[in-house]
Amino acid sequence: MRTIIPFNDNWCFRRPGKEASTITLPHTWNAIDGQDGGNDYWRGTATYEKKFARPDLEDGERCFIEFEGAAMTADVTLNGKHLVHHEGGYSAFRADLTDALREDNLLVVAVDNSPNDHVYPQMADFTFYGGIYRDVKLILVPEEHFEPVGDVMPGIKVTPAVHLQDREASVTVETRSTGGTEVRIEVPTENGTEFCQAEITDGYACARINLKNVRLWDGLNDPYLYTVTAKLVRNNEVLDEISTRFGCREFHIDPDKGFFLNGRSYPLRGVSRHQDRIGLGNALTRKEHEEDMAVVRELGANTLRLAHYQHSQGFYDLCDENGIIVWAEIPYITRHMTNGKANAFSQMEELITQCYNHPSIVCWGLSNEITASSKVTEELLQDHRELNELCHRLDPTRPTVMAHAFMLEKDSPLIPIADMASYNLYFGWYLGELEQNEQFFDEYHSLYPDRIIGFSEFGADANAAFHSSRPEQGDYTEEYQCVYHEHMLKIIQERPFIWAAHVWNLFDFAADGRDEGGKKGENQKGLVEFDHKTRKDAFYLYKAAWSTEPFVHICGRRYVDRAEETTMIKVYSNCESVTLFSDGKELETKTGGTVFNFRVPLCGEHKIVAVSDACRDEIFVRKVKEPNRSYLFGSAGSVINWFDKEDYKPDCYSIKDKFGDLMRNPAAAAIVGRIMAKASASRGEVAESTRDNKALQQMMAGLSFESLLKKAGANVVPPEAVKAINDALQKIRKDA
C-alpha cells in the first residue's frame, strides 16, 4: 500500500545576496516586500534545499515527491540529477525520485518568479509571490500502483450523472495504473456499500455504479459527499488503494432565469477571493484557509469566484464540504502573450484534471479581462476557441466562462466563444455613474436574450480609517463603499438573469503596484481588511441580504467624531424590525428591508444602541465643532468649489459639462484633448488597447469632464491645473 510522508520541515532557503536560512514550508520570499507598495518586490530565482535519508522502500516500490504549489517556475534536482521542470505557480506537480535516491540525499528546488514572455500571469492587479508556498509530501507506492503522475491528483476520476426524477445517480469511475489486472470499486452509502469491478486494459479501467435513493450534494442546504475507494488487484491481492470524495448534483443555467441546482432556482450570490494575507503572503496553512471559509459562511454567500488562478486543493475541499458553488479559473489575464499559448493550455489541463472531482466547481474560466492590455486579434480569438475546445474535451459536464473588462464592446466576437459571459463593471468607482451598471445589463440582456450573462466583478475601495457624512465617489470612505454596494445589491436582486454575482473582493489583497486610499501595496475593495478579521460596514450589508442568522449591525463605529447637528445612523440587519436608542432613550422603530436609516440629534457624547428581539449592537459617537481631518483621504474636503464664485458664467463651457459636449466644440476639444492625452499616457498599454473602443467612448461622452478629471487623480491633473482648465473653458461661449 502507498504511504504519505509530510515533507515541509527543515528546508534551507537561499536567495542571491542574502544569508541562507532554515525554513518550514509553506514559504514565500515576498511576504513583506510584495505588500509594501512601490512595485519593486524581488522577482528572481531562489533555491530550496533539503537533506534527507533514503526512505524505507520495499522491493519494486517507488518514491514520488508532490509539490502542491511552487511559484512560478520550478526545477527539481536530486543528487545532481534534474528530474522535472514545471511552469505555472498554482497547480500541483510530482516527480519520481526513485532512480536518483542514495542513502543520503540532497534535494534542490530552484523556484523562479521572474518576468518572462510565456508563463502566465505577467500583468495583473495582484502580487506574483515567489516560493514553495503550499505543502510538499513524499508518496511511496508499490511496484504495481495507481499512476501518480499525469492526472496528478487524485489518480481517480469520478463522473456522476444524476437522474432527479428517479432519485438515482449513475457514477462512472476511471483509473489509470501501472500493473494490476483489475480495479475494485467501493462506495459506502447510507444503506450499505456499493461494489463493482473492472478489468484493466493498457493501464486503464472504467467501472460504473448505480446509486439508488441518492443523497444529493445540495449547496448550502446539504453538501453531502460520497467517498469512492479504488483497489488495484492481481490474483485477489490488493496492491494499491486510493480514494476521493465526490458529490451528486445536477445544475443548469437559464439565460433568463439564472442558475438552477437540482431542479430548483438557486441564484448565485457571493464574492471573489485571493489566497493571500497580510504578513503571510500566499503561504497559507489549513488554519488560514479554514478561517477564510468561516468568513464566507458568516457572510451567507453561496458562491465563490476563486480568482485568478488555481487555488489549493484544501480550499476546494472546504468548498465541497460547505456547499459553496465555485468558479475556477487559470491566470490567463490582462495581457495576451503570443509565446504563452502552451502555458495557458497546460495550466488549464492541470486545473481540470486536478479539480475534476470537486462537486463545488461548476465552470472553468478561460481568461480574465484579457482585453485590458491586448487588442482583440485573430490570434487571441483562435487561442480562446482552442482553449474552449480543450475544456470541453477534458470535461463535457461543465460549461466555460470568461470575465470581460468593462470596456469590451458588447458585440465583440470574443464574447460568444465561451458558454457563458460575465462582466467586470466598475461604473461608480473607476469611471462613470452607478446607474450605468444596470443600464449595461439591461441593454445587454435586451440585445442578447439567449446569452448567459453574469456580474463577475464589482467593488469600491474603502479604507476603514476614512469617513464622511457626505460620501462621494473616490473618497475611499467606508460610507461610500456602503452607498456603492447598496446600489449593486439592488441591481442583482432585481435581475434574475444574472447567473452569478461575485463582489470584488471578500478580502483586501496585495497589489504591490498600488499607492492609493492611504495605503501602499493594497487593493482595498475587500469587504474585510487585509488582516482577514476587520469587517468593513459593507460586509454586513451582504450578510443582511444573504445570511439567515439573525443580527443587527450599526454602521460607522469607526466614525466617532461628527460635526453635523443631526447625524445619519445606518443599521444593516436581516431582522423584520429594528429599534434605535440614544443614551437609553428609544428614538424610533423601523421595519422591512435590510437597510434601516435613522436621524439622530447630536449634542455631546452618545451611546447608540440598535435592538431587534435578542439581537443587539452599539456604537459611540460625539459632536465636535470641526470635522476630524484624519477621516479624510488626502486633500478631500479642502478643494475649492470654483462654481460658488460670483464670476462663474453658465453660458460658457466648464468642467461641469459633459465630455461629449466639450468634444463637439473645436476650441473646447483642443483643451480637453491635451488633458486626456496626458491621462492616457499615464495609463500606458491599457490606454493604448482601448483607444478605438466605441463602447468606452460612448460611455465617456455622457460623463462630466469633472468626474473624468477626478478619476485621473491629482498626480496626473493637480488641483491648480483643474482651475486653469476651467478658467480656459469659461472663455468659450456655448453659442459661439
Q: What can you tell me about this protein's structure?
A:
With 736 residues, this protein is α+β, with helices and mostly antiparallel strands. Among the domains are: 3-142, Galactose-binding domain-like (Jelly Rolls, Sandwich); 156-246, Immunoglobulin-like (Sandwich), CATH 2.60.40; 562-631, Immunoglobulin-like; 642-729, no CATH class. The strands form 11 sheets. Strands 26-27-28-29-30-31-32-33 form an 8-stranded parallel beta barrel, surrounded by 4 helices. A 6-stranded antiparallel beta sheet has the order 3-2-4-10-7-8, with no helix packed on it. It has a 5-stranded mixed beta sheet with strand order 37-43-42-39-40, with no helix packed on it. A hairpin with a 6-residue loop joins strand 2 (11-14) and strand 3. The termini are far apart. Residues 635-646 and 683-687 have low confidence and may be disordered.
The coarse overall form would be globular
Number of helices: 13
Q: Structural class given helices, strands, pairing?
A: alpha+beta
List segments where confidence is low: pLDDT < 50 over at least 5 consecutive residues: 635-646, 683-687
For the record, the CATH class of one domain is Mainly Beta
Distance between the termini: 88 Å
- Kindly report the CATH topology of one domain: Jelly Rolls
What is the CA-atom radius of gyration, in angstroms? 28 Å
What's the story with the biggest beta sheet? 8 strands, parallel, barrel
Identify the CATH architecture of one domain: Sandwich
What fraction strand? 25-35%
Helix content: 10-25%
